[in-house]
């Protein structure tokens, strides 16, 4: 699969988002269950609500097992749905993950005198782009940009990682691009998306209350 070179995004011009207890988690935990899918989603969000985006789960195998069981239950409800259409296009904010690289940055940012803000996955189906963005203070953001192939099948999306950069105000440090593979959106609705990738890692994201633009 050929790697396509894409231009690097500019530094975001909107204020650094402040991380707070997710609106979708609050509403889902306090709402009344109306359907099996809503009940399954509420159960999953309850399990991850106190897990610090996955950092605490790393040392709690029992909790991890419970979360994966809850993901499987929600995925079973969404099985057969097409999740690679335009509903996939959004600025998605991470609620929880097992991805070690992202959790490493979040966990160890204080060592470098900073802290990690919102972690985003920004997808544009029409433009065939995916950007991973981790906000840091002082108008910095660490992000990776990926190019997708057009090989979509129901819930599977293929990608090639084409560029990465650590960027601040007036400076940037390019990082080597690497990797290609696929991810499957196991479940998607108007609030959240649940993902499993080629490395068997899981990701739970919500639709962010703002849009990140290049």
UniProtKB/TrEMBL annotation:
Source domain of life: Eukaryota
GO cellular component annotations of the record: plastid
Alphabetical keyword list: Plastid, Transit peptide
Protein name (database record): Plastid-lipid-associated protein 11, chloroplastic
Locations listed in the record: Plastid
Pfam families the record matches: PAP_fibrillin
Residues covered by the Plastid lipid-associated protein/fibrillin conserved domain: 40-205
């Amino acid at each position: 699969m050929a790697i396509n070179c894409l231009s690097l995004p500019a530094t975001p011009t909107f204020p650094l988002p402040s991380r707070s207890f997710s609106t979708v988690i609050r509403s889902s935990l306090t709402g009344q269950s109306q359907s099996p899918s809503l009940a399954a989603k509420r159960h999953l969000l309850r399990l991850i609500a106190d897990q610090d985006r996955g950092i605490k789960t790393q040392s709690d195998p029992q909790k991890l097992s419970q979360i994966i069981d809850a993901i499987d239950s929600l995925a079973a409800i969404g099985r057969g749905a097409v999740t690679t259409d335009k509903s996939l296009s959004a600025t998605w904010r991470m609620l929880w993950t097992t991805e070690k690289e992202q959790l490493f940055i979040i966990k160890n940012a204080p060592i470098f005198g900073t802290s990690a803000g919102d972690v985003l996955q920004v997808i544009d189906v029409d433009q065939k782009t995916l950007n991973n963005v981790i906000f840091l203070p002082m108008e910095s953001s660490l992000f990776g940009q990926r190019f997708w192939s057009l090989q979509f099948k129901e819930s599977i999306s293929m990608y090639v990682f084409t560029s990465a950069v650590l960027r601040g105000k007036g400076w940037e440090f390019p990082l080597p691009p690497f990797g290609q593979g696929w991810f499957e959106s196991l479940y998607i609705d108007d609030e959240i998306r649940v993902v499993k990738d080629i490395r068997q890692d899981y990701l739970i994201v919500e639709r962010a209350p703002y849009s990140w633009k290049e």
